[in-house]
Description:
Elements: H1 2-11, H2 13-19, H3 21-24, E1 45-57, E2 66-86, E3 89-108, E4 111-120, E5 124-132, E6 149-158, E7 178-189, E8 192-203, E9 206-209, E10 213-217, E11 220-230, E12 236-246, E13 249-251, E14 254-255, E15 260-274, E16 277-288, E17 294-306
Antiparallel strand pairs: 1-2, 1-17, 2-3, 3-4, 3-5, 5-6, 6-7, 7-8, 8-11, 9-10, 10-13, 11-12, 12-15, 13-14, 15-16, 16-17
Amino acid sequence: MRMQLLVRISILVFLSVALLALFSETLPAQELEPRALVNVPVGMNFLFLGYGYAQGNILLDPAIPIEDLDSHLHTFVGAYVRAIDVFGLSGKLGVVVPFAAGDWSGLLEGQAASTSRTGFGDPRIRLSVNFLGAPALRASEFRNYSQKWTAGASLQVTAPLGLYYPDKLINLGSNRWTIRPQLGAATSFGRWTVEAYTGIWFFTRNPDFYGGNLLEQRPLWTAKIHLVRSLSKGIWASADLGYGRGGRSVVQGVARDTRISTFRFGLTLSVPLAPQHALKLYVVSGKRVEQGADFDGIGIGYQYYWGSK
């Protein structure tokens, strides 16, 4: 019974990974992902479906010169994740594919303008490995396992396959590759867990930016912290905080005043519904200091999992 409860709590981490992709299209600076370092039995498979809604100043690219922006973005996501053995260390390999529909309105060069977009966003692939405190284990081996200190690293790659029109300012795809390495550490005491992460986003060039321009973007540094509370019957909740700084855009060799400096706050609740089924609710708010997304959002996700003995 205890092993089953531990496995159930552990697998809910994947709800975070997939659900937060709903909001990462708006600003990659803070993908708030509580419990990303939790060990999961090798061989487990996860399918996820989610929906998120966000409203506010949501720019998919900080180089876009739109003022007084008001956006309404509906995002649907499908994801698959598998827990793997990486030379004796626990790891995860997953893919996330977002589909979005949104409306944007604001001032473009002083004139009122509005537009809508519907289509796929850029898919992302992630490989993560816990190199401290989380060995690769089967479900049957979790009986004698207790997770205290954990540290790990991940590498996420976003592919330029989403909807993109080079003659449009607003796009759901980015027309460039994005690579994000990240390091994290976590410690548990009783029912509480504290997690901290730091990462950096690297962007390749977009040679076909609006107006036929060359768009470059400098690296974007991020930091995140989570306070997680395990509740009864496999339920857990977390308070999440992230900060991103950097990412200034350069168009045709000229740097623009678009350096991102934003905070993101989140609350997460994860609830198992039945064996192999789980549900997650999420609230997120982005607040900018200089530039970046300034919005509020909510999300819900459903997950089915199987495998591992």
